[in-house]
């Protein structure tokens, strides 16, 4: 008795794979990734509005400027705190 290999009754139709348009993906992972990128873009725009003179489109350069500005602000807080402390101290002398 000859052995036969079972085969599918009909081969699957060969359809060309069509990619979704940009922003139209339906895969849950793709949707989650797109939402993550949108949130990051919103936060970047918010930082651009908060930090003066940041108008670069290159994100790395823009983040460098923001880091420098935050360091500057921290230094300003230390200087102002010291000045307030000195004023308070000399008021009692």
Automatic annotation (TrEMBL):
A Pfam family that the UniProt record links to this protein: HLH
Keyword Ribonucleoprotein: no
Oligomeric and partner information: Homodimer.
Molecular functions (GO terms): DNA-binding transcription factor activity, RNA polymerase II-specific; protein dimerization activity; RNA polymerase II cis-regulatory region sequence-specific DNA binding
Sequence segments annotated as region (Disordered): 1-29
Record's GO cellular component terms: nucleus
Residue span, BHLH domain: 24-73
Name assigned to this protein: Transcription factor UNE12-like
Highest taxon above the source species: Eukaryota
Matches recorded under PANTHER family: TRANSCRIPTION FACTOR BHLH83-RELATED, TRANSCRIPTION FACTOR UNE12-RELATED
Lineage summary: Eukaryota, Viridiplantae, Streptophyta, Embryophyta, Tracheophyta
Keywords, in A-Z order: DNA-binding, Nucleus, Transcription, Transcription regulation
Localization of this protein: Nucleus
